[in-house]
Amino acid sequence: VHPNVSQGCQGGCATCSDYNGCLSCKPRLFFVLERIGMKQIGVCLSSCPSGYYGTRYPDINKCAKCKADCDTCFTRNFCTKCKSGFYLYSGKCLEKCPDGLEANNHTMECTSIVHCEASEWSPWSPCTKKGKTCGFKRGNEVRVREIVQHPSARGNPCPATSESRKCIVQRKRCQKEGKGKKNREEKRKKSNKEENKETRQESKGRAARRQNREQRESNNKTQLKKRKAPNKEQDLSPVDTAH
């Protein structure tokens, strides 16, 4: 062993140097050179840092740098995330997406152009005019459809979701607010009659009670007068006898 190589290393190093750091790593760890100013120091990591990809060899596992336009990569020729200003497509970083694709500024990827899709038209509605289905000959009917797939930025825009057309129907009279209204009117009249009947009955009852009360009061007054009359005769009788 070289005099500058130590066997008692820390931080995952199998062998190390005071000047160059790690020279080799323990099993399954990746060796990578980190630049500190003008100096490069070897370190051992469980996974490669951003901008590097790992390769395993029988004697050493080491991290290699991705391409300049690639932020993270799986191999040197397969990028998984691009640096700012580039769009990812099939493992490559492109400044402009190929024909038939569009740039997604949210994911920074080239994605397929999505066109708008609409459902089938609904059946035509009944012919109407001013919200009514009777009392006219010419009116309008409407049909609608729904958007089932909204478009991407460069996709074809969505079509109209409703349309109307003129329609002709056989004129028919609108039913007057006939039976329903008539029934309601009859019920109202019947209710009023019952209320009036109850009111008359209550009035008769109050009159009868008032008459009975007045009769009782009259009878009480008569009885009171009768009780007072004999007392007056008794008071006068001794005077008459004295004469």
Automatic annotation (TrEMBL):
Give the CC-aspect GO terms: extracellular region
A Pfam family that this protein carries is Furin-like_2
Keyword list (alphabetical) reads: Disulfide bond, Glycoprotein, Heparin-binding, Repeat, Secreted, Sensory transduction, Signal, Wnt signaling pathway
Composition bias of kind Basic and acidic residues appears in 175-219
Molecular function in Gene Ontology: heparin binding; signaling receptor binding
Top-level lineage group: Eukaryota
Q: Which InterPro entries match?
A: Furin_repeat, Growth_fac_rcpt_cys_sf, R-spondin, Rspo_Fu-CRD_dom, TSP1_rpt, TSP1_rpt_sf, TSP1_spondin_dom
Q: How does it assemble?
A: Interacts with the extracellular domain of FZD8 and LRP6. It however does not form a ternary complex with FZD8 and LRP6. Interacts with WNT1. Binds heparin. Interacts with LGR4, LGR5 and LGR6.
Job description of the protein: Activator of the canonical Wnt signaling pathway by acting as a ligand for LGR4-6 receptors, which acts as a key regulator of angiogenesis. Upon binding to LGR4-6 (LGR4, LGR5 or LGR6), LGR4-6 associate with phosphorylated LRP6 and frizzled receptors that are activated by extracellular Wnt receptors, triggering the canonical Wnt signaling pathway to increase expression of target genes. Also regulates the canonical Wnt/beta-catenin-dependent pathway and non-canonical Wnt signaling by acting as an inhibitor of ZNRF3, an important regulator of the Wnt signaling pathway.
The record's similarity note reads:
Belongs to the R-spondin family.
Know the name of this protein? R-spondin-3
Q: Which organism is it from?
A: Brachypteracias leptosomus (short-legged ground-roller)
